[in-house]
Amino acid sequence: MTSHPHRIVFANEKGGTGKSTTAVHVAVALAHRGARVVAFDLDHRQQTMCRYFENRAETMRRRGIELPTAHCHVVEGMDEPAMDAFLAANSAVADFVIIDTPGRDDPLARHAATTADTLVTPMNDSFVDFDLIGQVEGESFKVKKLSFYAELIWEARLKRSRTSIEQNRAQMDWVVVRNRTGYTEARNMARIEQALTEMAKRVGFRVAKGLSERVIYRELFPSGLTLLDKGHLGDLGTSHLVARQELRGLVANLRLPDRLAERIPEPAQ
Length: 269
Ligand SMILES: Nc1ncnc2c1ncn2[C@@H]1O[C@H](COP(=O)(O)OP(=O)(O)O)[C@@H](O)[C@H]1O
Ligand SMILES: [Mg+2]
Prior knowledge:
Elements: E1 6-10, H1 19-32, E2 37-41, H2 48-63, E3 71-74, H3 80-90, E4 96-100, H4 107-114, E5 118-123, H5 127-130, E6 134-136, E7 143-146, H6 148-167, E8 173-178, H7 186-203, E9 206-209, H8 215-219, H9 239-253, H10 259-262
Parallel strand pairs: 1-4, 1-5, 2-3, 2-4, 5-8, 8-9
Antiparallel strand pairs: 6-7
Helix pairs in contact: 1-2, 1-9
The site of adenosine-5'-diphosphate (ADP) has 16 residues, from α1 and α8.
């Protein structure tokens, strides 16, 4: 029996939190480890993730090089059952499925989020971003009210815990990734951490450190390269060594299953 691909969904109904950038980097990091990765872009207007992979393919062609990469499919004009069928048909031999979603309320994105094995919600260090998950009380940071979105994920997990035993699937792991972190005043940072800890307890997610704000993440898009493509990036100096470590740290913090170790060897031809 082969296990189904591990599904990682990047979702936050806000734009600009780094969903697509993080999705591409995690996909490439997994491909670099030898995993078979298939990507689905539900943001059919912007298509940032698929455009990144197109740029990557173009760089490979132009330079005559091979880089670990992922097939990327745009999901457009489908309803939920059609999307489920499309995903299943295009990921039969994948180890990981990466799903990027638009930064707006979107029924397909919500459906995708409820089917995640790992749900990654990138957030910037700002209280404005917290509203997506719930409203916090101004003094104590206790959670006053869960957002519709948090309720949706809660329901999906409940439903799944009822069926996961039969399906042999683990619970959904919801990871809020603090992204695009930069210089935040220490007092403000401590407040944000306190509020996030309160929310994490109530809502049932865990918090992981994501990517800091760095120009390099924007600059690499046209070439489709990532910080992991050593030897193809030119001379980037030492700050990028730190960035590469940060990226490896993010992937480690996602605690993804080791699909290569689990893979059943294919019979010799
Ligand atoms: N860690 C980062 N450092 C600097 N710029 C970033 C970082 N993450 C994303 N960006 C830039 O911010 C913009 C929005 O990021 P994107 O990944 O497209 O977010 P989303 O998919 O959530 O809308 C893009 O221009 C992207 O290049
Ligand atoms: Mg995006």
